[in-house]
Amino acid sequence: MTQKIKFAVVGCGHIGKRHAEMIARNEECELVGLVDVKSPSVVGIDQFKVPFYSSLEELLQSDLQIDVINVATPNGFHAEHGMKVLESGRHLVIEKPMSLSKTDSEKLIFKGLQKHKQVFCVMQNRYSPPSVWLKDLLDAGTLGKVFMVQINCYWNRDERYYKPESWHGKADLDGGTLFTQFSHFIDLMYWYFGDIKNIQAKFADFNHAELTDFEDSGFVSFDFVTGGMGSINYSTSIWDKNLESSITVIGENGSVKVGGQYMNEVEYCHIKDYEMPELAPTNPGNDYGAYKGSAANHHYIIENVVDVLKGRSSITTNALEGLKVVDIIERIYEMKKK
Q: Which of 152, 208, 260, 300 could form a disulfide with 216 if both were Cys (CB 3.0 to 4.6 A apart)?
């Protein structure tokens, strides 16, 4: 219980660096290694005075003592790198999405069980105060029967983000708009309401034909397995800056809307015999240069890993939930073929 948990991070881009920073700041953790195909000076990690490796294989062949390996490489490498981590006998923290196919996610889950190692999926928006509030509200049945749910995700992602040398926008490494940009909000939807069925979808590519291999916008409608109907409307064709990420829930006892750029503000709450509590402030979004992304809650992810491995808590986002997000996105994208 008093020993520090030793972490290594694979992939030192914006998110990988955030993982490394949160590990370094946690008194119960020790950052012991970093991996990236680019040099430390190029990716800007010279401040971490730990061994650096140019490949995951090189890290695994070293004599470093490592308990947990965090995978923050491009989406298309998550399954391959995750499998190698688990095969090496380390616990795995894997950035969203867990993989780009349900089959690969199932393989990761099986390997984790086979090796008796934990698989932590990074879905940090669950920690935002409005997310926790809405989850508690729904679990308590305060809204009564849920009739309708609408999720709107309208972000700007243009040539400043989809650069030719980047993995963003490439079908094999990125996977698509729902995987890279909006899987956090599909995770929240699944966390709140469970699985979906009777999916219908319409997709468009308004202004990304020269930038990406896939759509930039979509309308998706469905029914929840537990009752009620829902929709996801999304686009990255918004001019200049993000517009919103919001969820509106219509129930028999009232309605709520959580909005803002990344579902960080309760914009409306009108529920029978209910008084809205005061919520703690939400952390600002992750900053990607010209962009704001999902909420900056990665320190909670690292804290949860420590708590689970020291027997103090359960996993916030387990491997099955990570798989379900991939499964839902995969089923939505299957509508393109119909």
A: 208
235's tokens: 């686009």
Query: Residue 77 carries which DSSP code?
Result: G
* The last residue of a domain, from among 86, 121, 156: 121
Torsion of CA 235, 300, 75, 238, to 10 degrees: 20
* Domain end (from 121, 145, 163): 121
Task: Provide the strand spans (E) within 131-184.
Answer: 146-154
Q: Which has more pLDDT, 52 or 281? A: 52
Tell me the average pLDDT across 122-139. 95
Pick the closest to residue 187 from 35, 314, 84, 327 (CA basis): 327
CA nearest neighbour of 191 among 263, 120, 132, 257: 132
Residues 235 and 137 in one domain: yes
Which of these, 6, 142, 2, 4, lies nearest to 63 by C-alpha position?
A: 6
Among 95, 119, 85, smallest CA distance to 12 is for 95
Q: Is residue 302 part of a domain?
A: no
Pairs from 327-334 (Cβ < 8 Å, separation ≥ 24): 327/102, 327/105, 328/186, 328/190, 328/195, 328/196, 329/97, 329/176, 329/178, 329/179, 329/183, 329/186, 330/101, 330/102, 331/196, 331/199, 332/178, 332/199, 332/201, 332/218, 332/220, 332/232, 333/176, 333/178
The token pair that represents 230 in the structure block: 């829902």
Question: Does one domain contain both 54 and 76?
Answer: yes
CA distance 141 to 146: 9
> What single-letter DSSP state applies at residue 26?
-
Residues 102, 213: one domain?
no
Which tokens hold the place of 39? 């040099």
pLDDT in tens, 295-312: 568 899 999 999 999 999
Q: Taking 50 as the threshold, does the pLDDT of residue 288 lie above it?
A: no
List, for residues 59-100, the tens digit of each pLDDT value.
999 999 999 999 999 999 999 999 999 999 999 999 999 999
Is 245 in contact with 265 (CB distance < 8 Å)?
A: no
